[in-house]
Every structure is written in structure tokens, then in C-alpha cells.
TrEMBL record:
Residues 1-22 form the signal peptide. Keywords: Signal. The keyword Heme does not apply. Residues 93-184 form the Lysozyme inhibitor LprI-like N-terminal domain. InterPro entries: LprI-like_N (IPR009739). This is DUF1311 domain-containing protein. It holds the Pfam family LprI. It comes from the Bacteria. Coiled coil: none annotated.
Length: 203
């Protein structure tokens, strides 16, 4: 049974690689596909779609989908996509160092945004909800740090994931912080209908 599943997985990968490049895929799968191809980016290899930038898990409580629509226009994802496309369309081989620098840049941007929305949200809450959010954020931060430490010690420092390992981890860290930031944005949106990013697009 396990062998059949592996064979099916292999066939699916082969089929996907043969499809035309015009098929829309998410930034997450683009990044992972890039990492898995030895980081050699060729012109026209991938085509990001603005409509598929966000995971559908964003906007869990806004049943009308208005928050999701707001998040589609967020400036951080916009600039990341521009930078990603510059790498993708580059005629040179992109090194792991350059990919790592790109991911680190957006980790820092999302982290700053997370801190800002967290403070803003705290200022809008009464005492009991505020205390609950503080505890929730502490738990999330502990999970985030412990998960990162586990992957570093188990798969990165021993070279298990090869030269791409540290970049893959950075991509996961960026996505984890991004997702938590958007959760907090949604909480604020539910309170006052506001979506306000501190970061301003540079592109």
C-alpha cells in the first residue's frame, strides 16, 4: 500500500512538471518549487497569481469574505511578489545566500508588522480580553521559537536538508509570522472594520 502511494505521488509530480507554465500556483508552492530545483531560476518558469497569494485559512471569522479581499491588497505580499519575480526572471543563477537574504528581509518586515498590530489590538480590548490575547501571544511565540529550534537542530545543523535547508526554514518562518500577523489583523477588523498596515509599498 505504501509503495502504491509513493508511486502515485511520483506520477503526480511528473504530471505537474509537464503542465504548461501558464497554470496559476500560489507563492508558497512557487517558493518551494524553486527551492527544490537547486535554486536555478529561469525566465518564465513560474507565474504568480495575485488572486492566489493568500491561503484560504485567512479570514476564518469574517463570513462575508471582506477581510480576505482586503488582505489581497496588502503591501507586503505585493512587494515580496515583485522581488520574487525579479529573482525568477533573472538570467543568472540565484544563490542560496541571495534567497536567504530575500526571506530574511520579509521576515523582518512581517515581524515589525506583527508587533504593531499586536499593540494596536491590545489598546482596543478591555481587561479580560486583553489578558487572554497576551497569554495567547505568549503561547504562539513559544511555539514559534520551539518549532524553529527543533527544525534547526534536527534538520539544519546536521545538513540533513542540504544547502537549501536554511533557506527553506526561513521561508517557513516568514509564512508562520505572516499567518499570525493576519490573524491579529482579522481580530482588529472584526472590532472596528479597519485594516491598516504600517509598512508602505516600496515598489
Amino acid at each position: 500500500m505504501k509503495g502504491k502511494i509513493l508511486l502515485l505521488f511520483f506520477v503526480m509530480i511528473m504530471f505537474t512538471s509537464c503542465q504548461k507554465n501558464s497554470q496559476s500556483i500560489t507563492l508558497n508552492s512557487e517558493t518551494n518549487s524553486t527551492m527544490n530545483s537547486e535554486l536555478e531560476i529561469t525566465e518564465g518558469q513560474l507565474e504568480p497569481s495575485n488572486n492566489e497569494v493568500l491561503s484560504m485559512s485567512i479570514g476564518n471569522y469574517d463570513l462575508k469574505g471582506e477581510f480576505y479581499d482586503e488582505m489581497l491588497r496588502n503591501p507586503i505580499d505585493h512587494d515580496y511578489e515583485v522581488d520574487f519575480n525579479e529573482f525568477q526572471n533573472s538570467k543568472k543563477i540565484i544563490t542560496t545566500l541571495e534567497w536567504g537574504a530575500l526571506e530574511s528581509k520579509y521576515i523582518e518586515i512581517w515581524d515589525k508588522e506583527l508587533n504593531q498590530i499586536y499593540k494596536k489590538l491590545l489598546s482596543k480590548l478591555d481587561r479580560e480580553p486583553r489578558e487572554s490575547l497576551i497569554e495567547s501571544q505568549k503561547d504562539w511565540l513559544q511555539y514559534h521559537l520551539r518549532e524553529t529550534k527543533f527544525v534547526e537542530k534536527t534538520f539544519i545543523t546536521n545538513g540533513y536538508l542540504g544547502s537549501k535547508g536554511s533557506v527553506s526554514l526561513s521561508t517557513v518562518i516568514r509564512e508562520r509570522i505572516r499567518e499570525r500577523t493576519m490573524q491579529l489583523f482579522e481580530y482588529r477588523y472584526l472590532l472596528d472594520g479597519e485594516v491598516e498596515f504600517v509598512y508602505q509599498s516600496e515598489k
